[in-house]
């Protein structure tokens, strides 16, 4: 069954059980970030959920449904109608409130900022009032219970929707964010985050920081693949499976060119290389063009590598 076809949400949706405000996940959870108006990639990741028989109630998106690519409205409609969980990204915050820019946190004189002017205007023209209202109503945080662990889904960091948190971001900064998780609520064992567009999984003082990557743009690794993850509950924690996804990237890129969007991002869908690395710390810049590998890690406080997948 193609996820984009009618029937995906109706056939796969489940009622949610809440415990202390967290959604109880009674099986594997598929997580992905950054649809970025890439309809083909979003259809592909939802089709993957259907293929794995993961119902929409166990699929979660870390936000930025709309950004660089051609199909802002259709991608919003697909996510909105699919029945999956999604948190608000900075793009939903900005477009929902008809703000002047994407709120990505780019420096004013950066190449990312110059490119954002064009795609943001394209997205802004595409959206109707109902879609903007849906965006404004998205939660900024969702707590999930997986394998007896409570994980908070956020877009950037715990305290800031557009904060870039990378694998190389110092542990002290991640710890400060993780410490903030319990403010005003139940204690939490980790974060599922997005925004930076690059997947990584780390244990920080026993707590998890997991970014499943993005489906709307490749991971700057020199391949057109995009990334998502499946979190498998275990007796004492979670197994994190990082997965690569192929999709109709040529078609998505062609639609961007037809729409007159900046060539750099259309080329990025083909080459797997970002048009600008302004936002990247040195460690992530050094990884540019190095193909990522799918893999599997077991987390039960500490992280234990399992066999890499090919
Ligand atoms: Fe973002």
Task: Give a structural overview.
- With 310 residues, this protein is an alpha/beta fold.
- It has a single domain, classed as Metallo-dependent phosphatases (Purple Acid Phosphatase, chain A, domain 2, 4-Layer Sandwich).
- Helix content is 30%, strand content 20%.
- It has ten helices and 14 strands.
- The chain has helices spanning 8-12, 39-51, 72-82, 90-96, 111-126, 129-137, 171-179, 249-258, 263-271, 282-285, and strands spanning 18-19, 22-24, 29-32, 59-61, 85-86, 142-146, 149-153, 190-192, 200-204, 207-211, 226-233, 238-245, 295-299, 303-305.
- The strands form two sheets. The protein has a seven-stranded mixed beta sheet, covered by helices on one side. Strands 5-4-3-11-12-13-14 form a seven-stranded mixed beta sheet.
- Helix 4 (90-96) crosses helix 6 and helix 8 runs antiparallel to helix 9 (263-271).
- The two termini are 25 Å apart.
- 51% of the residues are buried.
- Residues 1-8 have low confidence and may be disordered.
- Residues 64, 89-91, 104, 155, 162, 195 line the site of fe (ii) ion.
């Amino acid at each position: 069954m193609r996820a984009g076809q009618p029937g995906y949400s109706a056939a796969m949706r489940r009622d949610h059980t809440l415990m202390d405000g967290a959604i109880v996940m009674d099986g594997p959870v598929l997580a992905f970030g950054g649809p970025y108006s890439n309809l083909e990639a979003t259809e592909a990741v939802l089709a993957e959920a259907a293929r794995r028989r993961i119902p929409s109630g166990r699929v979660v998106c870390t936000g930025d449904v709309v950004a660089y690519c051609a199909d802002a409205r259709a991608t919003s409609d697909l996510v909105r109608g699919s029945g999956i969980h999604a948190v608000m990204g900075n793009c939903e915050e900005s477009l929902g409130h008809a703000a002047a820019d994407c709120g990505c946190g780019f420096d004013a004189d950066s190449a990312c900022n110059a490119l954002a002017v064009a795609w943001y205007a394209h997205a802004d023209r595409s959206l109707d009032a109902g879609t903007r209202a849906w965006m404004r109503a998205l939660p900024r945080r969702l707590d999930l219970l997986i394998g007896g662990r409570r994980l908070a889904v956020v877009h950037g960091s715990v305290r800031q929707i557009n904060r870039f948190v990378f694998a190389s971001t110092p542990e002290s900064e991640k710890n400060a964010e993780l410490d903030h998780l319990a403010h005003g609520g139940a204690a939490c064992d980790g974060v599922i985050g997005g925004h930076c567009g690059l997947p990584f999984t780390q244990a920080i003082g026993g707590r998890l920081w997991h970014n499943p990557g993005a489906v709307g743009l490749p991971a700057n690794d020199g391949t057109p693949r995009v990334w998502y993850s499946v979190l498998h509950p275990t007796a004492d924690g979670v197994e994190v499976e990082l997965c690569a996804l192929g999709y109709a990237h040529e078609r998505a890129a062609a639609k961007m060119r037809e729409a007159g969007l900046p060539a750099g991002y259309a080329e990025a869908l083909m080459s797997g290389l970002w048009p600008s690395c302004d936002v990247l710390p040195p460690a992530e810049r050094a990884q540019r063009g190095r193909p990522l590998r799918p893999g599997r890690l077991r987390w039960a406080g500490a992280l234990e590598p399992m066999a890499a997948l090919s």
